[in-house]
Design a protein that fits this description.
10-stranded antiparallel sheet, alpha+beta, globular, single chain, 3-stranded antiparallel sheet, 30% helix, 7 helices, T-fold
Length: 298
């Protein structure tokens, strides 16, 4: 893949990579000691290799995962991991690309662990891979809008939770969505699975209404992998009831994925409403504003 390759040090054990479609913040340490710059640069090189590998099989990555799943010896590992995550959701409308950002984060995190890191945080544009030692924890901010610098709640995640991946999808991000949620954050056992499930849940936050304008994805992005699917392009003053019903659909999707053991929980925001599943997740969220969050929409 061609393009400028930028690396910026962000402090001990931290580096920011900007290369093509990837904007990734990498943080890693071993027994409390930040990893050396050369090891972080090696991780950045891993990203470059992943992009070049995926670019060579991009047409296949834009197909449903069934074309790849279960054939690890035939295709690159990164593509197989993407396909496996999407295939696990059971949604036949998604392609392997629905898990690309999370899978890249996972691959880099695993690479750093192989170099000896025991604490790793890889933030790939909001899709995050976590690798924590026993008894360790971190605090993660959750924003009500995709790409927002402001957060309205935080969540403490401990190693024993088993949530090694966090991903957010919704209306307003770089990717297209079929729904109207401005933020759907998912916790899962891997970033690749969190990415795929966040895409699915965000897509499900839709309620038929004239105020929601949708177009075939190919009209928005000619290179999209979901060319014929309708995606949301604009909202024209939807009533609160539209957001409420859309969010109920998203909650139902989150509950189904949770019941199958695919996710550890999800936080959803659409219009004036904010909800989560499972119910007990609400008690773990520290709110930064007056908005309430419950399992049911308000």
């Amino acid at each position: 893949m061609k393009g400028d390759f930028f690396l910026t040090a962000k402090g001990p054990g931290k580096i920011f990579l900007d290369y093509g479609p990837v904007q990734m913040l990498i943080s890693a340490s071993s027994r409390g000691k930040p990893l050396a710059g050369r090891q972080l640069k090696a991780a950045a090189g891993c990203v470059k290799e992943l992009l070049e590998t995926l670019s060579a099989c991009l047409p296949l990555a834009k197909q449903p995962p069934a074309a790849v799943s279960g054939k690890r010896r035939q295709f690159p590992e990164v593509l197989c991991r993407m396909a496996a995550a999407v295939n696990a959701t059971g949604d036949t409308s998604l392609t392997s690309m629905a898990a690309v950002a999370g899978t890249f984060a996972d691959c880099v995190a695993d690479f750093l662990q192989e170099l000896g890191a025991d604490t790793v945080i890889v933030n790939n544009g909001g899709d995050i891979a976590l690798r924590l030692p026993q008894q360790e924890f971190i605090r993660v901010g959750i924003a009500p809008f995709i790409g927002s610098a402001a957060i309205n709640m935080t969540l403490t995640i401990a190693e024993q939770d088993g949530w090694r991946g966090i991903a957010t999808s919704g209306l307003g991000g770089r990717s297209l969505t079929q729904g109207i949620a401005t933020s759907v954050t998912v916790l899962a056992g891997s970033a690749s699975l969190a990415d795929a499930c966040a895409t699915l849940i965000a897509n499900s936050t839709y309620h038929e209404d004239p105020s929601i304008i949708r177009r075939p994805a190919r009209e928005v992005d000619p290179d999209t992998d979901i060319a014929e699917l309708p995606v949301t392009v604009a909202l024209k003053d939807p009533a609160p009831e539209v957001f409420r019903r859309a969010l109920e659909n998203g909650l139902a999707s989150a509950q189904e994925l949770y019941s199958r053991g695919l996710i550890g929980g999800s936080v959803l925001t659409a219009g004036p409403y904010c909800s989560c599943f499972p119910p007990e997740l609400a008690a773990r969220l520290d709110l930064h504003d007056s908005r309430k969050i419950t399992r049911q929409t308000m």
